[in-house]
Amino acid sequence: MKIDVLTLFPNMFSGVFGESILQKAQDKGAVTYDVHDFREYSTHKHRKVDDYPYGGGAGMVLTPQPLFDAIEKLTNEGETKPRVVLMCPQGERYTQSKAEQFAKEEHLIFVCGHYEGYDERIREHLVTDEVSIGDYVLTGGELASMVVIDSVVRLLPQVLGNEVSHQDDSYSSGLLEHPQYTRPANFRGMTVPEVLLSGNHAKIDEWRRQQSLKRTYHRRPDLFDEYPLSDKDKDYLEQLEKE
Fold first, then answer.
1. Taking every annotated instance into account, which residue ranges of this chain make up the domain tRNA methyltransferase TRMD/TRM10-type (predicted)?
2. Using DSSP, how many helices (H) and how many strands (E) does the chain show?
3. Catalytic residue among 100, 116, 177, 233
4. What is the DSSP letter of 118?
5. Annotated catalytic residue: which of 168, 169, 177, 206?
6. What is the distance between the alpha carbons of residues 211 and 143, in angstroms, rounded to a whole number?
């Protein structure tokens, strides 16, 4: 996968892309990152990338020319048409399902804006996806794009080392993940559930399933709205309600 980032603050990405899983993914050849200062594409003599909004109002708006030229250049360089992702609080709420969609692409371009927003022609004619990581506003799209890139890259084949590592993650299955324990079995009087020490994998799977349902029930019951519950799941949830 190739990931390009268009930003006015390219130095923000060096630490993130140069550490942990994101660095290892690049070392393995699973992904390449290129961060571009789109101010370099401005044709204005002072490299301006923003201007006052027509009709008046506070703040400045990103002009279309630098981003159009930058994206057209990056698109023409590749063999496949990229997904162009605009980080924006007005976009659709980002989910694990969206991360899985992005992970299937060969080329992603992330657009990180600042100021009061974008010229609407950028939205209408350049981008394929508008994404928001939550119902709040950041000073720019850089941190949001880092979150999305991290969630996508970890899904690429061989990045985590174990092909099933991410399959039981919260939201990957549609539910929150069950509790996890490791050694020692007894830590300061706090013990690991006996079923996990039993070696009975059928019972362990059943316990994990029930714990996943229970955690989702208490923390994110809205996830059940779109999740296909089995009759056994429904019976367990009815029991939880009675308790």
1. 1-225
2. 9, 9
3. 116
4. B
5. 169
6. 33
Number of CB atoms found within 10 A of residue 74's CB: 18
The pLDDT, as a whole number, for residue 77 is 85
Q: What is the token pair recorded at 190?
A: 């706090």
Q: Which residue, 107, 143, 123, 127, is CA-closest to 9?
A: 143
CB 106 within 8 A of CB 1: yes
The yes-or-no answer on residue 150 being catalytic is: no
pLDDT in tens, 194-241: 999 999 999 999 999 999 999 999 999 999 998 999 999 999 999 999
184 is catalytic: no
Annotated catalytic residue: which of 34, 69, 89, 206? Answer: 89
Instruction: Count how many residues are written for the chain.
Output: 243
Assess contact for 216 and 224: CB atoms under 8 A: yes
Nearest CA to 208 out of 239, 168, 238 is that of: 168
Give the global pTM: 0.86
- Which residues are annotated binding-site positions for S-adenosyl-L-methionine? 113, 133-138
Q: Which domains does the chain have, with CATH numbers?
A: 2-153 (3.40.1280.10), 186-242 (1.10.1270.20)
- Is the pLDDT at 191 greater than 60? The verdict is yes
Q: Quick check: is 53 catalytic? A: no
**CB-CB contact of 66 with 39 (8 Å):** yes
- Mark whether 209 is an active-site residue: no
pLDDT at 79: 78
Range with lowest mean pLDDT among 54-63, 96-105, 129-138, 205-214: 54-63
Token representation of residue 227: 């999740």
The rounded distance, in Å, linking the Cα atoms of 88 and 141 is 7
